[in-house]
Amino acid sequence: MTPVLDVHGLAYAYPDGHQALFGVDLHVHRGERVALLGPNGAGKTTLVLHLNGILTAGAGSVAVSGLAVEKANLTEIRRRVGVVFQDPDDQLFMGTVRADVAFGPANLGITGAELDHRVLRALEQVGMEEYVDRPPHHLSFGQRRRVAVATVLAMEPEVLVLDEPSSNLDPASRRELADILRSLDVTVLMVTHDLPYALELCPRSVVLSGGTVVADGTTYDVLTDEALMKAHRLELPFGFDPRTAMPRP
């Protein structure tokens, strides 16, 4: 089976000469929920920006469901891979929730009843349909994050990439977002420092450190490997023990 995300030998150096990635291999199959873990400066953001063509490979290759991430394919790649940024205000810039969620599909040429259907379905998926005509800046931070997810879902992506989805959320909003992410029929790659959230939501974790993949296994095995965790500056919250935490399926 062709992986929905297929990264081979990806290397990338920024124009200032800083080498951020050194031959990364990553393969994610349809329906998986995978956490991308690692210390600051590991190359996680650089890797994510290659998945929908914001950056293009210096060496190696990236493909989404067999389609190469290259200039000629960028419109389709960006439909297939939706990125939800850490700050929802980076994605919400229109006057109403409806207009924000409609923006992406409308740019694909979708209009009329089909556009309305896309908007309402995406908002229903994140429990925000009753806010469709509200200005985004009147919403709470957690509500804005859910609308940001809806702006991506309206594109009907194959892969949902989330950058620190639990950051700055209160406990109730954190739980609500977890319930939403579990309910979605979409492949998820979640970049996070929130290791309990990774354990709760992602059966598999990939650890990136120093621009290379240093571990790829079950989230439980990664989080209970004390030598691995210490070597790559991954720390569990005080009092949290993966051995006694029981993530929901």
From TrEMBL:
Keywords: ATP-binding, Cell membrane, Membrane, Nucleotide-binding, Translocase, Transport. The keyword Transport applies. This is ABC transporter ATP-binding protein. Belongs to the ABC transporter superfamily. Pfam families: ABC_tran. Its main location: membrane. One of its GO terms (cellular component) is ATP-binding cassette (ABC) transporter complex.
